[in-house]
Fold:
Amino acid sequence: MRGLKNKVIIITGAASGIGKATALRFAEEGAKVAVADFGDGTATVNEVTANGGEAVYVNVNVTDTDSVKAMVEKVVAVFGKVDVLINNAGITKDAMMKKMTREAWDAVINVNLTGVFNCTSAVLPYMLEQKSGVVLTSSSVVGIYGNLGQTNYAATKWGVIGMTKSWAKEMARNGLRFNCVAPGFIGTDMVKKIPEQVLQEKILVKVPAGRLGEPEEIAAAFAFLASDDAKFINGTVLSVDGACTL
Structure:
């Protein structure tokens, strides 16, 4: 991808799954990667550096503004700038609406929605000062079309789309770009633990492509949207879902 070499990328939730695949992809493109996670991201960093890339692990709680501020300050101290933020950290606490607790609602809202606000707020001063920057956020096909038992999750994934479009309108003239990627059913470790019969009868039946997506395919979408090849793409949602939403 054009324009990613030596760019500094912060990826939240980069210790595993889509976040880890994204960190490896950006490092492959020559970017410098900040592996930000509430869990231990050293394995991702080690894999990046073993392949000749540059990476640093930063522990962060995206729901805590002081933790987020410290994350960004550390990245700037190590790499000197922030060019791209990928808001990938997210959780689920599923339940049908009649059984969903306020605790489950608040937990998902705090991480998936407020966490995106916190992280974006923290990088904005740096991006506005340099008059360039890209913020990419993980939405979901669930955020566009809803899903049984995911009122809280769907609300956050629709919410980040609205935030992204608002930010694009506010700051496009400042040289900043904001976009979302909306993954479909992706073969992360969590999904691969689903019993095969359930996977076939409840999930894959909804996907015309007939398979789960790979984390690397979502990483490729992030890399494209962060690159100079996407310089005129701003405020959009890129669905990567094997046609499951048609």
